[in-house]
Amino acid sequence: MRKGSVALVGAGPGDPELLTMKAVRLLQEADVVVFDRLVSAEILDLIPAGTGRIYAGKAMAHHALVQDEINDLLVSLACAGRKVVRLKGGDPFVFGRGSEEAEFLAEHNIPFEVVPGISSASGCATYSGIPLTHRGLSQGVRFLAGHLRDGQSLDDYDWRGLADPGTTLVIYMGLTALPTIAETLIGAGLPADTPAAAVENGTTPRQRRVLGTLATLPDLVAAAHLKAPTLIVVGKVVALAETLDWFGRSHDETMKCAAEEPARAEG
Predict the structure, then answer these.
(1) Does 236 participate in catalysis according to the annotation?
(2) What backbone phi and psi angles, to 5 degrees, belong to 83?
(3) Average pLDDT of the chain?
């Protein structure tokens, strides 16, 4: 029996056109695809009919498979000679636990490769008109997890170091903890009027964006009833969001054209 292999593939933040050519090729060649909750339906539609699909999604307090089970599944499928694509939202090595899966595969001598994907930070910010860096506004970016593993606390972060007006903060999985994060950053010295944004379902037609300041964003997000997946961006670069909102304007123009089409036809 031939020995199988595993490709840890980044699906990007949702827009299927952001997939790499290599990701698409591997999906076409796969025997089975093990996919996460945040992989969009539009991307799943690219998987050929007849290819095996296994859902391994995780939501807070509800996991289809726990991480140890996912690790064992990947090894089992490869040992059975299957060509496996482990399809993960965003980039496998950015808050995706892809590195843990790769370590497990290496320990079990399973051939694997990693295909980077556009990260949620880059994709969602860009589709919201927010450059992560900008000369004169932000000289660096820091990525944070707003939801930590058991036994870890947000108190473990160096908040005074994070409260740098010249750095953009991108917070994954931070929706529930947003009020605490905002209050803590302000207490650590980051000005309360620092521009801040929350982006739900970024890069997809379902994208929603809320703009405010570090002080006002928690209440604005609550009023908008944003749900996960939502990315939080804090920093001076968020002030450019209205000017650089190419995706929002493009969507509005598409809706406008669709509304005008019947009138043109009647004319």
Answers:
(1) no
(2) -95, 110
(3) 92
